[in-house]
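Trying the structure run again after the queue cleared.
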Amino acid sequence: MLYPQRFTQFTKEHADTVAALLCGLLLFLGWFALHLGWLGLAFLLLPAAYVIGGYDSAREGLTTLFKEKELDVDLLMIVAAIGAASLGLWRGEYHLIIDGAILILIFAISGALEGYAMARTERSIRSLMSLTPDTARVLLQGREEEIPISQLKVGDEIVVKPGELIPTDGIILSGYSTLNQAAITGESLPVEKTVGAEVFAGTLNGYGALQIKVHKPAQSSLIQRVIRLVEQAQTEAPPSQEFIDRFEKGYAKIIVIAGILLATLPPFLWGWDWETTIYRALTFLVVASPCALMAAIMPTLLSGIANGARQGILFKNGAQLEKIGKVRAIAFDKTGTLTTGQVQLFQVVSVSEYTQSDVLKAAASVESSSEHPIGKAIVQAARDLNWVSAIQVQAIPGQGIVGIAQEQQIIVGNAVFVQQYVTNLPEELREIVQSWEQEAKTVVWVARGAEVMGVIAIADQVRVEAAATITRLKKLGVEQIVMLTGDNQETAHSVAKAVGIDQVYAQLLPEDKLDVIRRLQQQYQTVAMVGDGINDAPALAQASVGIAMGISGSDVALETADIVLMADKLEKIAVAIHLGRRSQLIVKQNIVVALGFILLLLVGNFLGNINLPIGVIGHEGSTVLVTLSGLRLLK
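Done. Tokens:
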């Protein structure tokens, strides 16, 4: 029973190839029978070759004709083959039946090759679909139970063992491990994760067991959104492909009209015999068909989408891959895009009696009771130092925090707040603080009792790759790079200077960002916007190409954007632009090759230098060549 099942599965998966092989075998046997003079057997075998090799093309062509009232290339091929066979029967020149069968055979082989070529692209895209398991191991009343992913609810606790795939997005409740996120974010190195960290469905757990709390529905996970968007990208035709589709419909009608004229006028105008006239007209139907032109665009763009997905760049459709290659200006949001969006300790300066560690430990002792981002940044920076949490802690919102640590009062806050507790603020620290504030740093004063210990600077860290990305974009020829932010001028110019951006728009509301994008579009036409927050959504929607940060980005930004950077890596923008430009170049090359082959074959047909099989080989060869050319973008 096993072998018939395997045979059935093989024929189903490789139906085009099996049909082409059977067509070729029957064609060879029919030719051999003709050669031996066995006409009865030949007339039995050759029609079978026509039917098996041309069935799919005839069905598709007739479906298009009757349902859409349009002519397509498949039907033209079948008409040319049947015409050749009819001419052979009429004139008693049976080699023409062989020519028609060869036409169908080559068309069938070409279809099988194109199918395999496109399947390679689709496999690259479908590999995303296999990234999540079908079931999850849920903790129910202390016991582990496997349930389908679709039955997971927000709040469920799941267990993921070493070497398993994470089944859905969640927050780690217990455990420590390294996760391979390459399939989702494009990061090549595993990332360490522990309690409180977010994990993503489809990432591979390393050596540690994890207990994870589901914090969003399984269908809302990052990987499921990626899969839906990639599926959408496969079905949406970009403007260039839509133009080619419209062109093909009109072009097919022109071919038919021209074919009819070529089949009737030459005997009267140039004295051709009817056999030559009809044969040339049939060859014209074959060589003038725009198969290669139709294959010039979508294989290339689908390959580019698959390539981008492997590198952590999600193109929502082929149109965005085309547009990103034409970008002349780029606008960046600041917070969460050029910066990490998370404040971190920048620098600690102490007075002479204390060390930097003393200042940091004192501040951490009271800030450990705070939920404020600045307090969390200080505690994170002091995690390797020995300190004890303060007692009797009291926080005054917007000013500071006080508490008792090691029987001494610790005061942490802004200058005005700390001055209420100390005799004076050291002059040498005032000068340092002034320079920090000019650089848009947040300054925290630290005092013990009535004495100032030192100051701590907190800053939103500029992404390490930001400056290199801006430099790379300028080298790629992007004419204008600007920064848009709601922050004040000082902070904005400080970040812009650090990353190499000259043009800054600060203190902007969401509608102001929208206006800037519109002005840039008037000057540069194709403009990209890079952002991560809800306030960036209007500008992302207005931009020719909206680019969102995949991890730090809000759901609104992710839905609005055209391209998503899965790992929040800014350097991928330059990769996306390069990919877009390469796709444009390959599409142009493909169109030139396709039109060149059509022109060459048409000239050869009118000069009488090619027969029907050679015309088919040239026509189908150019189609396969163009399709394979498009697959270069997979590399």
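The chain has a mean pLDDT of 79. Worth checking whether this holds up in the mutant runs.
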